[in-house]
Write the structure tokens for this entry.
Amino acid sequence: MTNEISLIAAFITGLLGSLHCVGMCGGIVGALSMGLPEKTRRTLWRLLPYQLLYNSGRILSYVIAGALLAWLGAETTSLLGQPVNAIGKWLSGLFMVALGFYIAGWWQVLTILERAGNHVWKYLQPLGRRFLPVTNPFQAFGLGLVWGWLPCGMVYAMLAFALSSQDSVQGASIMLAFGLGTLPMLFLMGSAASHLSNFVRKPLVRQLAGTLILLFGLYSLFAPGAHEHHDHGSMDMDMTGKNSHAEHKCG
């Protein structure tokens, strides 16, 4: 996919997949406001800086992870060659398909990765607790920075997407677009949690969101030109080689 389509897909995946965030992050958002004065909790404009800084920290964690994995993908390809790049593209598409099944509730395969991530999370979680109770905006930012590493199949799927870009700026951009896509739902969750929870628990809502994400994954796998740029590179090399050979013969 082109860079623009990748960013659009990442944003929409975050927007649709954030239905899942209501269950994963609802307790954290509640903890964010628990230590604040009641006047702050009940006033949207006073609570807004805390929500903004918490989510800024969370998204910054995504951006850092995306940049690092994309850089790692580029380094691996430079060492092992283009076949690794092609494998990465296919894996990212398959992860997107798996995410669609995951969000829709049809197949919870990504919970395997979440369980694996729990082994790392158990060392990070105590660090996040140091920022609780949140009494100032800087604590909210620190809490978000740590909680951005919470084991989440949706984040892992998008990190596979970022990895396949093999460009640290593009990988960071993908995760930024994804993180921004999750913002509307999480902001609503802070002010209208009960109504939102009832809405997103409806099977039809989750299935529609999962289907759309699944279609993005299938598009990245099978769309015309999705993977053929590798072949173009080989063809260009062959053409260059043939042209050089022809010039040598002519000389």
In short: The first helix runs from residue 3 to 34.
